[in-house]
Design brief:
- With 258 residues, the protein is α/β, with parallel strands linked by helices.
- It has a domain of 177 residues: Rossmann fold (3-Layer(aba) Sandwich), CATH 3.40.50.300.
- The chain is built from eight helices and twelve strands.
- The strands form three sheets. A six-stranded mixed beta sheet has the order 6-9-10-3-11-12, sandwiched between helices. A four-stranded antiparallel beta sheet has the order 2-1-4-5. Strands 7-8 form a two-stranded antiparallel ribbon.
- Helix 5 packs parallel to helix 6.
- The chain starts with 7 loop residues before the first strand and ends with a helix.
């Protein structure tokens, strides 16, 4: 890996779902140590980008590239991308009945690291991370996301991230459905994990999460393209003015270039 190579580089990315174009030329770079926020109205393609980064087979790349540390990941499955250091926190985490939290996490770590971890070491690390997220110890024996509240599901996503220590963390609307207390706990958990070797892509509708996780860069996705980028002040502008102005400007540009 050459010095100065971006952690994540997306170039001219076009993605279709069931032959319907969703992403129409996304360009984005995320460097180590950076937090990027991706914002946009419903249906703009934000979740499509997150699933595409993770390698969901339903999302078909028809043009462009995704490079992680300079390596093309498009031919890699989700498991291989995870081993390369990509992590996705889902907007709607799925329940896995019959699989306990502790067994799920230990199996995931073994798969990622390629070697087993001692029970003592694993339990110590897991207990420390759960305490930081204000999660009760009985949580370990519960089945993954079964009967979890919205806040518990999102805390479990951050717990997974804490245990797996990814290079690239993609957070797909992690703030969805959280009350203010749960939002703060989740955001504090993310902030505690930030380091100069990890990049974070926070996908959100609203500015409120960015009150707690400060982005270095903010991007606005409209109709499958990033139409504006800026600093954290851009998120404040969107909160105050909404997306209508940016959507209208984007439509006018497309009409001019058509």
């Amino acid at each position: 890996m050459a010095e100065g190579t971006p952690l994540l580089k997306i170039e001219n990315l076009h993605v279709s779902v069931d032959d319907k174009p969703i992403l129409r030329g996304v360009n984005l770079e995320v460097n180590r140590g950076e937090v990027h926020a991706l914002m946009g109205p419903n249906g703009s393609g934000k979740s499509t980008l997150s699933y595409t980064l993770m390698g969901h087979p339903k999302y078909r790349v028809t043009e462009g590239s995704i490079l992680l540390n300079g390596e093309d990941v498009l031919d890699m499955g989700p498991d291989e991308r995870a081993r390369k250091g990509v992590f996705l926190a889902f907007q709607y985490p799925m329940a896995i009945p019959g699989v306990s939290v502790v067994n799920f996490l230990r199996t995931a770590l073994k798969s990622l690291r390629g070697t087993d971890i001692s029970v003592r070491e694993f339990r110590k690390e897991l207990t420390e991370e759960m305490a930081a997220l204000q999660m009760n110890k009985e949580f370990m024996s519960r089945y993954v996301n079964e009967g979890f509240s919205g806040g518990e599901k999102k805390r479990f996503e951050i717990l997974q991230m804490a245990m797996m220590k990814p290079q690239l963390a993609v957070m797909d609307e992690t703030d969805s459905g959280l009350d203010i207390d749960a939002l703060r706990i989740v955001a504090d958990g993310v902030n505690r994990l930030l380091n100069d070797q990890m990049g974070v892509l926070v996908i959100t509708h609203y500015q409120r999460l960015l009150n707690y996780i400060t982005p270095d860069h903010v991007h606005v996705l409209v109709n499958g393209r990033i139409v504006r980028s800026g600093g954290k002040e851009l998120a404040l502008e969107l909160e105050a003015e909404g997306y209508d102005k940016i959507i209208k400007e984007s439509q006018e540009r497309e009409e001019v270039t058509a």
